[in-house]
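Appendix B: complex inputs.
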Amino acid sequence: MVTAAAAERSRPVPRPRADALRNRERIVAAAREMFVEFGPEVPFDEIARRAGVGNATLYRHFADRAELIREVVCSVMDRASEQAERALAEEGDAFGALRRFVHAAADERIGALCPMLAGDFDKEHPDLDEARDRIESLVEELMARARTAGQLRTDVAVGDLMVALSQLTRPLPGSGCVNFDQFVHRHLQLFLDGLQAPARSELPGTAATLEDLRQRA
Amino acid sequence: MVTAAAAERSRPVPRPRADALRNRERIVAAAREMFVEFGPEVPFDEIARRAGVGNATLYRHFADRAELIREVVCSVMDRASEQAERALAEEGDAFGALRRFVHAAADERIGALCPMLAGDFDKEHPDLDEARDRIESLVEELMARARTAGQLRTDVAVGDLMVALSQLTRPLPGSGCVNFDQFVHRHLQLFLDGLQAPARSELPGTAATLEDLRQRA
Amino acid sequence: MVTAAAAERSRPVPRPRADALRNRERIVAAAREMFVEFGPEVPFDEIARRAGVGNATLYRHFADRAELIREVVCSVMDRASEQAERALAEEGDAFGALRRFVHAAADERIGALCPMLAGDFDKEHPDLDEARDRIESLVEELMARARTAGQLRTDVAVGDLMVALSQLTRPLPGSGCVNFDQFVHRHLQLFLDGLQAPARSELPGTAATLEDLRQRA
Amino acid sequence: MVTAAAAERSRPVPRPRADALRNRERIVAAAREMFVEFGPEVPFDEIARRAGVGNATLYRHFADRAELIREVVCSVMDRASEQAERALAEEGDAFGALRRFVHAAADERIGALCPMLAGDFDKEHPDLDEARDRIESLVEELMARARTAGQLRTDVAVGDLMVALSQLTRPLPGSGCVNFDQFVHRHLQLFLDGLQAPARSELPGTAATLEDLRQRA
DNA sequence: AATGAATGAGTATTCATTCAT
DNA sequence: CATGAATGAATACTCATTCAT
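Resulting structure:
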């Protein structure tokens, strides 16, 4: 009892308050929804309203737009990573696991990453690196299995899949994405068919890694 | 061809002055470049500056952003239509013509249509209908030939190709697209491989027409 | 002396707790430093941070900015009064005592009073009257001695000295005052030379008392 | 003279419109008044209102607060320079000319320079250098004449006078300066008396040039 | 017709102050 | 008592659009 109290007092970061944590979660959730729907330029006041907090509360949690975007980006990546892990764990067929991940990632609105990554924010932040490394290694594993099974053409790399996946699932700005999804899954399916071995054409350029994307975005 | 179409769209009534016409062309050209590079939200003053005219001149030619966007959309579509016509005329192999068109359309920045179409503008305008009908029928012809030749899977429609094409070539907001292109052509190639007959999987949803897109955007 | 005066000013009623008193002192000290350095507009949160307390604690001790400013003003005046008392007690030469006080008051940042007095706060508060009366009578005594000794021109009053002293030592907003001090003491010295008898010119206006300043500020 | 200098500062390129020039003048005039009265932090909207223009017009003429402050600073310096020129031209007695300039500069609110110089703005701008060089050389000339005539003590430099002058005439924030002026001229007179030869005391520190001030401010 | 200038409405951001733990 | 969190009101700044030359 005494030691616990002393430890709490001596800690420099004294355990965030429960309601503040709840607010933070609600803000991130609201931001994710609105970024996906309207792009990363949405007014902060709208995000705050949707989250049910005052606008200044948002600034208490995230010093600027960049910080909020980063948090949402990491959150989306993490959710996609979870999907990748499930696909790896639960799917028997190697290419089937890849398919499952791609469609699941689409449902997690991974396409929203594109416009968000393009905005001004610190692309060197460790949280971001961590989230990217995680998703990258998981997708690499998915692709490696499919390649080993002879189901995936050999001239594609992680970056190829991730960028195309992001682009094909990228929301149309200003539109509710409701009936767009049905098309998206068709396009993904077609793209996946193009990924299958044997290769039906020779690809231009060189295989893209996530590193290349970091340079560009 | 494109100039003819554009001329038809201009006011036929009071015989436009030569310098006014030149200004109009320069504005559309500047807008196309900037829309592609920065998205359709670019400040009007910047477009005017790039075009080398005063901002009010821009308003003289285009009552609002919607009108300018529409003009640019039509212009991009027209240029893509030209590419489709050339592919039809000059390419022997049916699927090869389709491939050629897809890559050429990418170079014409057809991906910029997506964010532009999403903005608020009158999607019922006759100019737009005309340009869309033109590109649609041309692409349909390209696809029909490939299908007839047994090179194209039978469960895809024009809308599938056009939307995926737009999405895959869509510029990343805020970034010079320079080194992005090399990836884009890879993705297009993979997608085209997925379009080839025989179909490697069953597609979800139903084949998309351009009509469906009009509803959505 | 200053602690005694400060203690008298605190609520005598409910017997304040020891840590609360310590907090109050730390807040006043922090506020004095920051007012001098950045002016009286500094964010309350910053003062609280420098004092090492939460912002709400600050409000517990001082209902609003006016109250805090008043406390700091009194504190600065008290410290200057102490200097005046020492000069009176320890300095043999009458004008030398005046000189010593002026330079010592400058080092106590008495110039910070000007911007602080200008802000909105209750200039009728008894604490303020008390502190002002104290410094005024002390400076009057210093001047009276010098005048009696024939060292001080006869057409100047306390207000003349106090205002000029405050103005000449007033910090430049936004700048660390480090190397400014060396100039300040030169200016004070020149002003003091102008105060010496015999008068070298006829002064415009009338001799200023501290009462006049109260009206104005 | 001042108009000439101001004209030189304007863009030589596109020939400014008449009404725009009038607006610019009104904005600078309004800003000068309000900076003197309330300090350089006054809301831009208030300046615009006083100038009788919309707030955005203010931004058209001055990209940010720094630019407006710079213009006002130059304007105040130019007006003081004019006073120095008149004193040099019209006053027979050397020290009399210096006295006249000092009091006239006070009436031109030269004290407002202090808080304005402290704000964030580009202290390297050529306009500023020009205005400072002008006032500096004029005051140097005034002081040189008085020194040559044996009327000015030899251990003071331009910076000593300019800083003390600015400080002594510096407006009290938040107060209309109406009845403050009568005191100011007394203080200036006392300071001037202290400047007269023969020196009545030895000055601490070293003579200040305007260069030193540039470093500090 | 063409243009530079003016404007008001909208957004981001800060900060004093109140509230809940 | 002490505190971190929440909030709304204020301000800076941008940009589409209209006005005057």
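Residues 111 and 165 of chain C are 7 Å apart (CA to CA).
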